[in-house]
Each structure stands twice: as structure tokens, then as C-alpha cells.
Amino acid sequence: MSIQIVSKDNVPQTPTIVRDAVPGQLQIAIIGAGLVGLATAALLRKQGHQVTIFESSSFHAEIGAGIFLPPNGVGVLKNLLPELSWENMQGVDFRTLETFNFDGTHMDTDDVSEAWTMYPQGWFMIHRVDLHKEIMRLALDPAALAQAPATIRLGTPIKAVNFDPKRPSVITEAEEECTFDLVLGTDGIKSTVRKCMVGAEFDAPATQFGFYRWMVDLNTNPELSWMRDDRKSTGPTMIMDMNNPAPKVMGIFAYPIRRGNFINISVAHHDTRDPDTTGIRRPRRRHSGEAFEGLCDRFKGLVDAARNPRTWQVRKLPVLPTWIKGNVAILGDAAHAMWPTYGQGFAVGLEDAATIATLLPKGTKPSEIGGRLQIFEKIRKPRGERVSKMSTDDLSPPKNESFWIRPELLGYDPVAVTKAALAEA
Ligand SMILES: Cc1cc2nc3c(=O)[nH]c(=O)nc-3n(C[C@H](O)[C@H](O)[C@H](O)COP(=O)(O)OP(=O)(O)OC[C@H]3O[C@@H](n4cnc5c(N)ncnc54)[C@H](O)[C@@H]3O)c2cc1C
Ligand SMILES: *[C@@H]1O[C@H](CO)[C@@H](O)[C@H](O)[C@H]1NC(C)=O
Ligand SMILES: CC(=O)N[C@H]1CO[C@H](CO)[C@@H](O)[C@@H]1O
């Protein structure tokens, strides 16, 4: 069986969520089936636990978007989930970044081949949907792994969490209460689990910056295929309005996905919407042509090919007082939504997932969970906060490093860190 993008209609719904307790298997709820929730589910399935995922959406509206998967994230997936098919994910290697001026002048080639020597697992650009589908297969497809698959309840938003120190529970929008040994909140930047844990005063505040985003299919825009074909090695292209003292857009960032046949475009711009009346991810007006004044014809094609551009305001969470409460923890964007500056958001969420799974091998007793979550928070909170801070405040690398090749980010091994912490505990 292979799992396609699931909709409420073609995924088996489980009326009774809590299966019979089996000694040595924890009953774990995961709130949110984004990339981090599904990766956590796959890793905990592999440890032999009983995993139930609650997802508010029905996955009808998957947003197409490209994502960078840096070596620290690739390492987690390749080492802990070798069953993942990289073939299915159709990634493109990140080898070089080419920078151009708006007028078409080539400015710079940033070569990251040194990173491939330092981190042979690689660095990829992948379509979000391809990544999501493949990680979902490992979480849900009975044939993907020997261990029993996770169960998913789509169209089931969680509205409250009860932090009972022994048996936490979640309450669905339909007032159903379900009890588990452990509840993990991977419900993203607007996390309900986080709100229940620390209050709404720690929501992500509005910023002045957003990204226009769209995708160009080279099969239907062959005049742009030079962007894929006219370069020595694969990687993103940056186009900046360098001669303009007050540029309307801060840069066009274009990168190939799906074996190079699609180009993902992301344009950083000022976004001065009123934070109280606009949602975090609400698409807004079409990008204005005026913002791209002075762009040479060669690149203008990228803008003209935009069919359904959206804007996405970037936001970052403030430092939270805690990431755990009773037998409940938050992971991924729910805990550390950050700016996409270094393309690290998902990778740091994968580190969280790897840490949780390493802390909870099969045979872990429910009474041990509280102590393990304390180790989780001790390891992960400083790390998530550090990378999040780097995404806004630390944009100049040390002298011996390039902006892209920063061992602090790329060389982090969550399993080694967790094993060391367990040995110490
Ligand atoms: C503009 C932009 C560019 C980015 N680029 C990169 C990049 O290049 N590389 C990278 O590593 N990261 C990148 N990121 C970050 C990356 O997208 C996120 O870190 C990653 O997708 C986080 O996933 P998540 O699973 O934690 O949250 P999400 O993907 O937000 O998933 C949360 C899930 O929870 C569900 N949910 C929400 N509330 C409830 C509820 N109450 N009950 C049940 N379910 C609920 C939602 O429907 C959703 O499915 C970028 C982010 C942005 C904004
Ligand atoms: C740069 O130097 C620091 C400190 O010595 C070291 O930790 C880091 O790994 C070096 N970076 C690279 C890319 O070698
Ligand atoms: C439409 C699309 O694929 N947009 C993505 C392009 O890349 C940026 C930077 O990683 C993402 O933020 C967009 O989501």
C-alpha cells in the first residue's frame, strides 16, 4: 500500500483511539501532522510505541513550496529512517549559490562543495509535498516499517490539553477527551498546545517582513530553462536590486526542486500589515509590478510566470518559559518558529524529533517519561533558541566560515548529544 496525499475520506478513521496498553509500549498522542509531527510519529513508531496523530485539517489544500534540507536534518533522516526513499523525494543538490544584480550582471558564485566534504550526507532542496508524502509513508503505511503504524485522525482539531502529571489528555473540538502516556504538540507556529501550556502572551508577534512566493514550472515556461541548464552545478539563484538605495524588494531567491524541473521563488519584501487584523499566513494582494522595476528581461520572465503568488509574513516566537508541562512537550515550530534565513526551521524540528525518540526507547515506563522530558527540554530549548536567534540576529559568520557553512548549524548531531545526556543522567 502506498500513501498518497490523504483526505478524510480515504484514510481509515479510528473510532477507539486508545488501544489496549501493551507493556513496554507507550501510548503517545501527536498533535499536528506537519513535517515535524509526521517525522516524530515515524521515529516513535520505529521505537515500537503506539502513536495516534490528531490533525485539524483534512489535507485537501497542500501548499506547494520548496524547502531546504540542510545536513543536520538530512543526517537525522538518513541515520534514523534509512527506509525513506530519496528517489521519491526528487531533491536537488545544493552545490552553489549564484548571485545576480537586477540588471542581469553576474555578481558572485558561492560554492558550498566544502560542506559536502564535511557532511557527506548532503544538502538538498525538496518540494514540501514530496517530503511530506514520503515521511507520512513511514509514519502511516503498514508496509513501510516492521512496527505497527501510527493512526491518524484527520479533521480533528484539539482545543485543549489537560496536563495531568501521570495521564495527560487532549480534548477535541467535538468535546471528545482522549488520554495518553505522553502528548507531543507539533501543531506549528499558532500551536494550541503551546497556548494551553504557557498562555497566548507568547504568540509570535507581527513583523515588518514577508515573502512573496510562487513556483515556476519549466515544462510550461521553457524560455526560463536556462536557469536550470546554464550552470555548472545545481543550487539556488539570488537576484538583488544592488544599485537601488531603497529597493522595494530585498532580493529574489529562486531555487530548483523536483529534479530541477520546478523553480521555487521567494521574494523578501516589507510587509506593514496590521498585525491584529491579518492572519499569519493569509495570502494578500498580488505582488505589485512596481516592486520589480529595473529587473532585466531575462529575470522578468520569472515574475511574469507567477500564477498564484502569495505572501507569507515571517514571524518568530519569543523565548518561552518552558517547553514541557507534566507529560506534555512541544516540538518544531510550536516551540521555535524562526525566520527562514538559514533554511533551518524544519531541520531543528527534526533534531527535536530525534531527541524525543532517542530518549524513549521501547521499554520506557510511563513513570520515566517526566524525567526524560526534563532532559529533552534541557537539550533542546537552548539549541532551538540559539538557532532562532541566529535567524534574525547573527548574520555575519566567524572569519573562518561562510554564511552557509556554519558547523554550529550543520554539524549538530542530536542523537550523540542525547546519548551523552542520558549517560550523565
Ligand atoms: C517562509 C518560510 C520558509 C521556510 N523555509 C524553510 C527551509 O528552507 N528549510 C527549513 O528547514 N525550514 C523552513 N521553514 C520552516 C519550516 O517550514 C517549518 O519549520 C516546518 O514546516 C515546521 O513544521 P511543523 O510540523 O513544526 O509545523 P507545521 O508545518 O505548521 O504543522 C503544524 C500542523 O499542525 C496542525 N494543527 C494546528 N493546530 C492544530 C490543532 N489545534 N489540532 C490539531 N492539529 C493542528 C496544522 O494543520 C499543521 O498540519 C520555512 C518557514 C517559512 C515560514
Ligand atoms: C571555525 O573555527 C571555529 C573555532 O575554532 C570552529 O569551531 C569551526 O568549526 C571552524 N569552522 C570551520 C568551517 O572550519
Ligand atoms: C511557492 C514556494 O515554493 N515557495 C517557497 C520558496 O522558498 C521559500 C524559501 O525557503 C519558501 O519560504 C517558500 O515557501
UniProtKB/TrEMBL annotation:
Keyword check for Membrane: yes
Keywords: FAD, Flavoprotein, Membrane, Monooxygenase, Oxidoreductase, Transmembrane, Transmembrane helix
Pfam families from the UniProt entry: FAD_binding_3
A GO molecular function held by the record: monooxygenase activity
Domain spans labelled FAD-binding: 26-388
Regions that span the bilayer: 26-44
Similarity remark: Belongs to the paxM FAD-dependent monooxygenase family.
Name listed for the protein in its UniProt record: FAD/NAD(P)-binding domain-containing protein
Organism: Mycena sanguinolenta
